[in-house]
């Protein structure tokens, strides 16, 4: 198997090393693992692409490249430059430091890479490690992802969901904020929404009188509805969420029929 890995935390992020181990296990001794990752952290860029200026690509080692761009840029650059003659069989994005469950999913560059992979017709999985009191002080906070990551990916790859309206399924996986031995299992879970949790800003006045705003997230310990992604994560389960890039609110069509003229 030929696997492309990327992330949004940057080429030197510890989660990318975790993902390299997962990818090597999946690829096997006769497989190939390619890394194309951002030069700098790109958290929060979602499915952003570098559309208005050229993107610098630098080869660091065989099958290892650094991009001055977003995670989606990394996928595009990989597919149409270093891997153009032999496309990957699988794209893995992560392992993100922190969860990409509930509303975080919409902002995530980790998810953005998986979206681009799916749009390009390649099976794609985003993986993120939830942080919390039970794992953040471990010798390796990514312990749950290290132990369970390859098996989760294998189980996902055994599934063959059909396309819908031309959009392929991609997968969002979140590992719970617990030690590997305390993971209770896997749960197929929909994307949730933490009640009254939103991104916001914190102001800061600099000594020169200028005003700056820090973007900040909300309380990550508030679970959404029972059975949704963040809720099962906080209960000790790995969440698996099938997703598509189709943003249409199909369920609203019936109630909006009077808009047709």
Secondary-structure map:
Blueprint: E1 2-6, H1 14-27, E2 32-38, E3 57-61, E4 64-67, H2 71-80, E5 90-97, H3 109-119, E6 124-129, H4 143-157, E7 170-175, E8 185-188, E9 200-205, E10 211-216, H5 229-234, E11 237-243
Parallel strand pairs: 1-2, 1-5, 2-4, 5-6, 6-7, 8-11
Antiparallel strand pairs: 3-4, 7-11, 9-10
Catalytic activity: a ribonucleoside 5'-phosphate + H2O = a ribonucleoside + phosphate
EC number: 3.1.3.5
Keywords: Cytoplasm, Hydrolase, Metal-binding, Nucleotide-binding
Brief rundown of the structure:
This protein has 261 residues and is an alpha/beta fold.
Observed structural traits:
two-stranded antiparallel sheet; alpha/beta; 261 residues; 21% helix; globular; nine-stranded mixed sheet
The ordered H/E elements are: EHEEEHEHEHEEEEHE
Distinct helical segment count: 5
Low-pLDDT ranges: none
Largest sheet: spatial strand order? 3-4-2-1-5-6-7-11-8
CATH architecture: 3-Layer(aba) Sandwich
Question: Into which percent range does the helicity of residues fall?
Answer: 10-25%
Q: How many β-strands, per DSSP?
A: 11
CATH class: Alpha Beta
Question: What is the fold-level CATH name, i.e. the topology?
Answer: Stationary-phase Survival Protein Sure Homolog, Chain: A
N- and C-termini, Cα separation: 52 Å
- Tell me the name of the CATH homologous superfamily: Survival protein SurE-like phosphatase/nucleotidase
- Judged by helices, strands and strand pairing, the structural class is alpha/beta
């Amino acid at each position: 198997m030929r696997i492309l890995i990327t992330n949004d935390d940057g080429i030197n992020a510890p989660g990318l090393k975790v993902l390299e181990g997962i990818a090597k296990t999946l690829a096997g001794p006769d497989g190939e693992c390619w890394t194309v990752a951002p030069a700098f952290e790109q958290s929060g860029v979602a499915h952003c692409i570098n559309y208005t200026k050229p993107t610098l690509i630098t080869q660091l080692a065989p099958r290892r490249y650094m991009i001055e761009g977003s995670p989606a840029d990394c996928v595009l650059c990989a597919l149409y430059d270093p891997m153009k003659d032999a496309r990957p069989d699988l794209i893995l994005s992560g392992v993100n430091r922190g969860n990409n469950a509930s509303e975080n999913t919409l902002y995530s560059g980790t998810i953005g890479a998986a979206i681009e992979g799916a749009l390009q017709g390649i099976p794609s999985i985003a993986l993120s490690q939830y942080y919390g009191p039970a794992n953040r002080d471990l010798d390796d906070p990514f312990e749950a992802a290290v132990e369970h990551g390859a098996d989760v990916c294998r189980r996902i790859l055994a599934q063959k969901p059909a396309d819908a309206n031309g959009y392929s399924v991609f997968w969002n996986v979140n590992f719970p904020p617990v030690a590997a031995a305390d993971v209770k299992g896997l749960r197929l879970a929909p994307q949730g929404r933490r009640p009254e949790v939103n991104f916001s800003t914190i102001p800061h006045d600099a000594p020169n009188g200028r005003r700056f705003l820090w973007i900040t997230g909300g309380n990550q310990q508030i679970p959404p509805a029972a059975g949704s992604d963040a809720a099962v994560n906080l209960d000790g389960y790995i969440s698996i969420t099938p997703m598509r890039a189709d943003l249409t609110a199909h369920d609203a069509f019936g109630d909006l029929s009077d808009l047709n003229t």
